[in-house]
Give the backbone structure.
Amino acid sequence: MTVEQAKAVDAIATDSTTGRVHLTIADHLEWNSDHLVQLQEKLNSYLAFVESGEIHTAYPAARDRAVAIDLVLKYRPNAEADAFLAQVRSILEGAGFTFHYGPLQSGYANDNG
């Protein structure tokens, strides 16, 4: 599953150290305005998944746990994406969630060296 499948949760797991439930979005797209719209739709679906309580049906281990949303990116965000992601972080943290984003373990595909 990927960012293009707005209604699907790409991955869900519990961090054994913190106990926090992590919902992960796998994002393989290069940055453009369509990408930002798709990402916003995916993030809205994740929020609905948590806020509706559907998370507890799909993943009972999430009950009474803090939730983090992790965005794993293939491509380094451009300036417009950085501004968008900063706004997302502010909104999500204001709602009580943790938000992280960054590259795959191998780094961003569009970085040189």
About this structure: The two ends are 29 Å apart (CA to CA).
